[in-house]
Specification:
Number of strands: 11
Radius of gyration: 18 Å
Keywords: Signal
Organism: Streptomyces solicavernae
Structural class: alpha+beta
Distance between the termini: 43 Å
Bound molecules: calcium ion
Protein name: EF-hand domain-containing protein
Helix content: 10-25%
Number of domains: 2
Number of helices: 4
Shape: globular
InterPro entries: EF_Hand_1_Ca_BS (IPR018247)
Strand content: 25-35%
Strand order of the largest sheet: 1-3-9-8-4
Largest sheet: 5 strands, antiparallel
Length: about 240
């Protein structure tokens, strides 16, 4: 573990521990793998160390959640941890905090930021993919390869120290752009500094099927080049109305 755990990390670790224990009772055969999965997802001390410079932690949705109503109103909440030091924000490509959204909320004071499918103007190295994202060229959606990072509403600095530069990023999904009554996969990573300018600012608007297997997913992100692990969350979108 490369950083002091946040309160949310500790909560997630505790929750994952309970899930891992329950899984172990339910299936002795599957327990070792499940425990490793839980430890990896919680970012707990059991997490195997890797030498990637950036770390992504997804707080919501959680694995197995049934989120939203009519495919809307669900959250993606995550933290990206970049290298620390006085140059950390610049190297992260961070261009300022944002509070943004559709229509009249888009790119207005006091914390302007663009709101659209594609590369985020505030965290330009981040890629967020949905395996069931719609294909609608009029709205700039290009199926599962669409980078959804510029649809996040709230972005800010959660930690800025010698150890790490942590940026928090939250999205309340206001439309059923990933469907409803459907199993889906959220995939999150930070793209490598592909142009060698010293800044993680190289996320594409749309990830292409780089390995030619007919689908766009984490394998294509790895083929593109990533500075972080590729985090995946499998969950379901609830199609029922709120009331
Ligand atoms: Ca933005
Ligand atoms: Ca770069
Ligand atoms: Ca592919």
């Amino acid at each position: 573990m490369r950083h002091k755990p946040s309160k949310r990390t500790l909560f997630a670790a505790a929750t994952a521990g309970v899930i891992a224990a329950a899984t172990a009772v339910a299936s002795a055969v599957a327990a070792p793998e499940s425990a490793r999965e839980s430890a990896r997802e919680s970012g707990s001390a059991a997490r195997p160390k890797d030498d990637r410079p950036v770390e992504v932690e997804v707080f919501a949705p959680a694995e197995g959640d049934v989120a939203g109503a009519e495919g809307k109103g669900w959250f993606v909440d995550l933290e990206v941890s970049y290298p620390g030091g006085p140059d950390g924000l610049r190297r992260a490509g961070f261009s300022g905090a944002q509070l943004t959204g559709p229509a009249g909320h888009n790119n207005v004071p006091p914390l302007p930021g663009t709101f659209s499918p594609g590369q985020d103007d505030r965290l330009p190295g981040l890629v967020v993919l949905g395996s069931t994202t719609i294909d609608d060229p009029d709205r700039k959606f290009a199926g599962p390869g669409t980078n959804l990072a510029d649809l996040f509403n709230v972005t800010g600095i959660s930690d800025r120290s010698a150890d790490a530069t942590r940026l928090w990023d939250t999205w309340i999904v206001g439309d059923s752009i990933m469907g409803k009554d459907i199993d889906t996969v959220l995939t999150v990573a930070v793209v490598d500094d592909l142009d060698d300018n010293g800044v993680y600012d190289d996320a594409p608007d749309v990830v292409k099927d780089l390995n030619g297997d007919g689908r766009v997913d984490g394998k294509d992100l790895k083929a593109l080049g990533v500075a972080s692990e590729v985090e995946k969350v499998r969950f379901r979108l609830n199609g029922a109305p709120a009331a």
